[in-house]
Amino acid sequence: MKKLYFNYLDTFKGLSKEIWWLALITLINRAGTMVIPFLSLYLTEDLHFEPKDVGWIMTAFGLGSFVGSWLGGKLTDKIGYYKVMVRSLLTTGLLFIGLQFLNTFASLCLGIFLVMLVADMFRPAMFVALSAYSKPENKTRSVTLIRLAINLGFSAGPAVGGLIITTMSYSGLFWVDGITCILATLLLIQVLHPKKAKPLDTVINENPESAYKDKAFWIFLVSMTLFGIIFLQYFSTMPIYYKDVHKLTELEIGLLLGLNGAFIFLLEMPLIKWLENIKISKAALMLIGAFLTAMSFLVLNMTPWIGILLIGMLFMTVGEMIAFPFSNAFAMERAKKGNQGEYMALYTISFSIAHIFGHNAGMQLVDNIGFDNTWYIMTGLGMICALLLWILKRYLKAKNELSYG
After folding, report:
1. How far apart are CA 123 and CA 129, in angstroms?
2. For the chain, N or C: smaller number of CB within 10 Å?
3. Is 375 in contact with 242 (CB distance < 8 Å)?
C-alpha cells in the first residue's frame, strides 16, 4: 500500500505551480456547478415542465455554450487568456445567482443561454492558459490534473447538491454556484496575474494555419461531437432514468453521479501515466474510450437488476478517463499549427454542439420511444464515433502525423 501511495504521488511530479493553481481554481468553480446535473430534475420536478420543454431549454444551454466558446476563442487570441478567464468567471457567478428567479419557459431559455454564453468563454481561454503553463512533455498529465479537479468538484458537487435539495431547496444550489464562481475569480486574480505567473510554453506562430482547413482536425471534431452527445446523456436523460425506472431518490442519484468523480480522482492520473508509457497513439486511445462509453448504454438494456447502473457507470467512467485527456492533448498539439484560441474554441464548440442536440434529442427520444430504444441509439452513435476515430488514425498514419500518448 505504501508503494502504491508513493507511485500515485509520482504521477503528479514535474507539473508547474501555475497548473496546480489553475487546477485549484477549477476545483472551486466546478464544486459549485451542482446545478448542472440536477438541471433536468429541477425543471421537471420543481418547475413542472414537460420533458419536451426541458429538451428545448437544454438546447438553449447548448446554443449559449456554442456562442460562448466561439467568442472565448476570438477574445483569447485578441486580449489574452487571463482577461477572458477573469471576466467570464465573475460574470457567470452573478448570472447563476439571478437564474433562480426565472420560472417561465421563455425567460429560462434566455437566462440559461446567457449563463452558458458567459460561462463557456472561460473554456478556450483555460485550455490556452493550460498549454502556456505546461512543459510540452507534461501536457497530457496537466490536462489530467485539471480534469481531476473538475471531477473532484463534480464528485462533491452532486452529493452536496442532493443534500441541499433534500434539506433546503433547489434555489440554494444557484446561490452556492454563484458564490463559488466569484471565489474562484478572486483566487485567479491573486495567483495567475500576468505579473506573477510565468508561461513555460508560449507559441508564437508567424504564419498560422487556419483550423478550418485542417482536415484531420475536422474528422476529430465530428467524432468529439458524437462522443459529447452520448456522454451528456449522463447529465440529462440518465438522472430521469434513474428516478423513473429504478426509483432512485435525488440523494441516491447524486451519490451515484458522485461515484464517477471519485473513481476518476483515484484512478485517472495513474491510468494516464501508464498509457503515456506504452506505444499506443492518441487516436487509438480515444477510439477505446468511445467504445467503452458506448458499451455503458448497451449494458443497461441487458437486465433490470439495479446493480447494472454501477456497471454502466464504470464503463462510462473508464471510457471518459481515456477519451477526454487524450482528446484535450490532441487538440492542444494541433493548435500549435495556427491560432491557439481558434483551435481550442473549435474543440470546445464540438461539445457545445453536443449540448445543442444531445440533451434535446435524448429528451425527445425518451418521450417518444422510451429509454431502452434511446440507449440502443446512443450505442450506435458511439460506434460511429469509434469508426471516425479509426479513420482519423489511418489518415494521420498516412500523413506521418500520428502522435503517441
Report:
1. 10
2. N
3. no
Helix ranges (DSSP H) in 32-138: 35-41, 51-79, 81-99, 105-119, 122-132
User: Cβ neighbours of residue 9 under 8 Å, at least 6 residues apart?
Assistant: none
Cell of 288: 477505446
C-alpha 347/C-alpha 333 separation (Å) is 12
C-alpha cell at 358: 444531445
In angstroms, the CA 275 to CA 258 distance is 25
Question: What contacts 33, CB < 8 A, 6 or more positions away?
Answer: 153, 154, 157, 177
Check: CB of residue 282 under 8 Å from CB of residue 403. yes
Query: What's the count of helices (H) and strands (E) in the chain, helices before strands?
Result: 15, 0
CA 390 to chain centre: 23
Q: In 10 A of CB 3, how many CB atoms?
A: 7
Amino acid at the residue 191: V
Sign of CA dihedral 284, 404, 334, 24: positive
Instruction: Tell how far CA 154 is from the center of its chain.
Output: 10
Alpha helices in 168-279 (DSSP H): 171-191, 215-231, 237-244, 250-276
Residue type, 200: L
What distance in Å separates the CA atoms of residue 49 and residue 57, rounded to the nearest whole number?
Answer: 10
Q: What is the spatial distance between Cα 309 and Cα 11, in angstroms, rounded to a whole number?
A: 30
Q: What digits encode the pLDDT tens for the residues 16-62?
A: 788 888 888 877 766 655 666 677 777 777 777 777 787 787 778 77
Residue in 359, 373, 161, 321 with CA at minimum distance from that of residue 253:
161
Integer-rounded Cα Rg, in Å, for the chain is: 20
d(CA 66, CA 394): 29
Q: Which three-class secondary structure state does DSSP give residue 47?
A: coil
- Alpha-carbon dihedral 185, 186, 191, 194, rounded to 10 degrees: 70
Instruction: Write down how long the chain is.
Output: 405
pTM: 0.73
Interval 338-388: pLDDT, tens: 667 778 788 888 887 887 788 778 888 888 888 889 999 999 999 999 999
Spatial separation of the C-alpha atoms in residues 259 and 253, rounded to whole Å:
10
